[in-house]
Design a protein that fits this description.
By secondary structure, this protein is α/β, with parallel strands linked by helices. It contains 13 helices and 12 strands. It has one domain: Alkaline Phosphatase, subunit A, CATH 3.40.720. α2 packs across α9 and α4 crosses α11. The radius of gyration is 22 Å and the shape is globular.
């Protein structure tokens, strides 16, 4: 007998449904969290939402936030460097890539905090290892699970959780969302919620397959029902809001459009996590990077406009990161190789906009990379303590100074 009922088991061609006896793991786990909440009671946090946007592959920070007045920049990047005339000036000899016109508009309104030189000690240039470090917030590999997952765990253990507190828009659950006590549902798209939960026959089956021959089984049955109710309610509400802005059809536009729909219709959701790849620009970087940055810039600007139109913009904070920057110097393939420190962005109406962190020092590189000056866990602590009302010291395994970036 199969251990789980999978989506394939449930959604057969023509609506046929396979018979099973066990609920999916994600349902049972989030039901357990809901059961704990019901037993212990919980306080409702302020209605702040954190959107985590991951630029997968290693975004070239030096061509994103450009020290265009530094002659060393031209020496290191004679081909892939952005011409000074094309740079979108910010201040202090720094400017945005020309594809970030929409993001610069938000910056000029004071809605973008650019945090430079973000990284961690002894940086790792492996995609997988560095991404694990960023997503676990544990450079020494001492902490299990993901940083968002651990945050949700603290809520579960104190009875302050719900089945849709955090949601991932991903085909696979990223490490950041893995937890010990909590379960964070992930969907490839919002349409996936429709097919997982919205199918009446599948939903009926999931509600009926719980045994009830003992008191314990009745408790689990009721908890699973509560979890299903939460997911079904979310699915039904998603259709109540159709985003009005033009997000475009690229991966960022699609992502931010779905995030807008979640924020507008799911008031219980506090963390939304999604990623877009393609930033591993070893060769032919200029056109590829320009297209990616434009998609990101246009998508996040449309999202901000959507939130403002709905009157929700003061509730939402967007955090943007990549697993590492690129080398300071270009390679022979008109690209850049894996590096270390790079910029992060915090975007929203309650951000204290401006430039933060150290200026890129291209005359004081470390093995060809920018040296980090801001530990990424300080940015996480800022979001955890100052936005989500969490306990960053507990989640991050130590005290990291939150940055004064939020009003």
């Amino acid at each position: 007998m199969s251990e789980n009922i999978t989506r394939r088991d449930l959604m057969k061609a023509g609506g046929m449904i396979a018979v099973g006896l066990v609920a999916p793991r994600w349902l049972g786990a989030i039901a357990h969290a809901d059961m704990i909440q019901g037993a212990q009671g919980g306080k409702i946090d302020p209605n702040c939402v954190l959107v985590v946007c991951q630029l997968s592959g290693g975004n070239d920070g030096l061509n994103t936030v450009i020290p265009y007045r530094d002659p060393r920049y031209r020496e290191l990047r004679p081909e892939v460097g952005i011409p000074e005339a094309n740079v979108l000036d910010l201040a202090e000899g720094l400017g945005f890539h020309p594809s970030l016109e929409a993001l610069r508009g938000l910056y000029q309104k004071g809605q973008v905090a650019v945090i430079q030189g973000v990284g961690y000690p002894n940086p790792n240039r492996s995609h997988f290892k560095s991404m694990d470090i960023w997503q676990s917030a544990s450079p020494d590999n001492k902490l299990k699970h993901g940083w968002v997952g651990r945050h949700v765990d603290t809520r579960v253990l104190t009875g302050n959780s719900n089945p849709v507190y955090a949601i991932g828009l991903s085909t696979e659950r990223p490490l950041a969302l893995r937890a010990e006590a909590a379960a964070i549902p992930c969907f490839a798209s919002l349409a996936d919620i429709q097919s997982m939960v919205g199918n009446p026959d599948a939903e009926h089956l999931l509600r009926q397959i719980q045994g009830a021959s003992s008191a314990d089984e009745k408790v689990v049955q009721q908890a699973n029902k509560s979890a299903l109710d939460a997911m079904a309610e979310l699915q039904s509400k998603l259709s109540q809001h159709e985003p009005k802005q033009d997000y475009g059809k690229d991966k960022f536009g699609t992502g931010f459009r779905q995030v807008a729909q979640l924020v507008a219709t799911s008031p219980q959701t506090r963390v939304i996590y999604f990623s877009a790849g393609g930033f591993d620009t070893h060769a032919n970087q200029p056109d590829q990077h320009a297209a990616l940055l434009k998609g990101f810039s246009d998508g996040v600007a449309a999202f901000q406009r959507e939130m403002e139109a709905l009157g929700l913009d003061k509730r939402v904070l967007v955090m943007v990161f990549s697993e590492f920057g690129r080398r300071a110097y270009e390679n022979a393939s008109n690209g850049t190789d894996h590096g270390a420190a790079g910029p992060m962005f915090l975007i929203g109406s309650r951000v204290k906009g401006g430039l933060y962190g150290p200026m890129p020092d291209l005359n004081n590189l470390e093995n060809g990379d920018l040296r980090f000056g801001v530990d990424f866990r300080e940015v996480y602590a800022t979001a955890l303590d100052g936005w989500l009302g969490g306990d960053s010291a507990k989640v991050l395994g130590g005290a990291f100074r939150p940055l004064n970036l939020l009003s």
